[in-house]
Design brief:
122 residues
Length: 122
């Protein structure tokens, strides 16, 4: 699949997420709207994984670049967070553990659901 088409598809879904964020009164980030839309498009097979696989793989591989600016911002603001480093690390650890637990439980749920679906087919 053409790289420009793949990128346009991903950007188009992101744009629709931005539009929904501007129109709907819910406190949900535009990126979350975009992810939900892309998920639904993939689940309904309107968009096939092959149609976005190459560009999305590339974007995931360069994702660490997007964390450079916030890291430098924290380094520049060290004076403001100096007395709160322990609390920040604790909050980061707790949120990491929560995300890890929810992700694991969700994966287990879908694995069990998939096994039940396969057993029904037999």
């Amino acid at each position: 699949m053409n790289y420009i088409f793949q990128l346009a598809l991903i950007f188009g879904v992101s744009f629709v997420g931005e539009v929904l964020n501007a129109l709907l009164p819910f406190p949900i980030p535009a990126s979350v709207y975009g992810l939900i839309i892309l998920f639904l498009l993939l689940c309904t097979k309107i968009v096939k994984v092959e149609q976005i696989e190459t560009v999305s793989g590339f974007m995931i591989s360069i994702m660490p670049i997007f964390f450079i600016e916030p890291t430098v911002g924290i380094m520049n603001s060290y004076g403001l967070v100096k007395g709160k480093v322990a609390a920040l690390f604790l909050a980061a650890f707790i949120s990491f553990a929560a995300v890890l637990a929810v992700t694991g439980l969700t994966a287990q749920f879908f694995i069990r659901l998939n096994k039940k679906k396969e057993e029904r087919k037999k």
